[in-house]
Structures
1.
Amino acid sequence: MPSQSPNEFVITSSVRTEIVLRAAESTTSTDALLSGIDASDSAVYDALSTLRDRGLLTECSSGWELTAHGSLVADSVSAWQSSETFLATDPEFWKNHRLDVIPARFRRRLPEIGEYEIVRDTPQDPNRSEDLAISMIESADACELTTPYYSRRHQEAIPTHPETRLLVTREAIDVSLQRYKDGHREVLTELEPASIRLTECQFASVVTDQKLKFELPTLSEGPTTQHGGNSTPEPSERGSVTDTTAIFVSETDPAVQFGRDLFEALWANSEPLGPYVERQFPELWE
């Protein structure tokens, strides 16, 4: 059988994991490890020996320190632990929603967010998640909003601050403009046209100075295929963000930064609204 990878070798032992993570912080003496790790002395000595034999750890005059290989493994193990902690907050949410709609480099950053809450609709409160989202927008001086769908309540709640920016899909804009043409709205928009740009996205998000909220598409319950006895949805059967009854909310500083960075990345690749409206709704452009 092939030998374990360095990452697997470390994480399959709590003692080895703790030694590697402690050594990643600073050079650590044997005595400090013996007194600081909840394990027998023989278990600590054995872990030190095997980590050294693997080339992950080396002993110097001031104690134990990681090799370059060990530092890379420590970074990987730390990231793995962060992901495990992040997922453990609400495993069901991550099992029932799609995350492929967020760029990979931002998916990898999700564990940085730390604490979060999943707010779900209930039979007693079927609009709970939307009400919370609206309250979040209304209480903000400004926000950055990304959406693939039109919502009258969201439209009315968006703050008209100069720093407010919107990224919307063509489909959402079409509905909004049509409602204006049909007389369902008195004002086309109170925001500067330059504050609204067109994007291609399948998730919804709101970022304020204090919070991040996003909605992900649900996984469809459509036809399934069998894989080793397990049933999984067909790849073509994918839900919509409008099907979701749960939203992700976080108030940590890393969450707000994550949301801003994601919005900026989408904004940089977006298109101005004016040419599209002029082409599709010339009567409004005039």
2.
Amino acid sequence: MSGHSKFKNIMHRKGAQDAKRAKMFTKIGRELVVAARNGDDPVFNPALRAAVALAKAANMPKDRIDRAIRRGAGGEDGTVYEEISYEGYGPGGVALIVDALTDNRNRTAAEVRSTFGKHGGALAESGSVAFQFSKVGVISYPAAAADSDTMFEAALEAGAQDVESSASGHEITTAVEDFAAVSEALEAKFGAPESAGLTWQPHNTVEVDEEKARNLINLIDALEDSDDVRAVASNLEIPDDVMEKLGA
């Protein structure tokens, strides 16, 4: 089974805040608009299927999902968005990949570079960080959704690559091309997941002390606060004793 970063528990807690939720809906709406430009039927549009799965996992209202799809498919939103990934290092040599969807490359690059610099990090050359990660789909369910054996069997039958179950919940990993199909199969059996999306999974993790952990959390928070940033992945692993000091 794959390694499990306890750092995500902090981010899940912070993601529950209303302000974060509103910003998340705005970002997901942009994803839906862009994906729908290649067709408004999720059956024939894998990118749209993945975006809809992400929206449902975030409990985005159906009418808002439908409006975003109509805007994209009908060409009502004429903004041209570009997908960009930035690579860098934070305190303690922790590697980070920042995925962005932007209508202004220069603005986003300047904002990301400035955020790294303010929090003790630095951008790196393209390719110097990404080789330490693999792009995967990750779907999370609460422990109460099913016992570990039931979730394991259902996930693998749906085409998942890996399942990790613990007292805090179930984490299902998929290949990028299988993410939408696995999400749909699990949702039909267990209901909407706690979270679902495509992410970068680190091959190895880096442990840091309390001070560096706090700085890294602040850095990731600041990056994710940008309207242009879709997600931030890292190879951060916070030891249990440091987690206790952080109050997580």
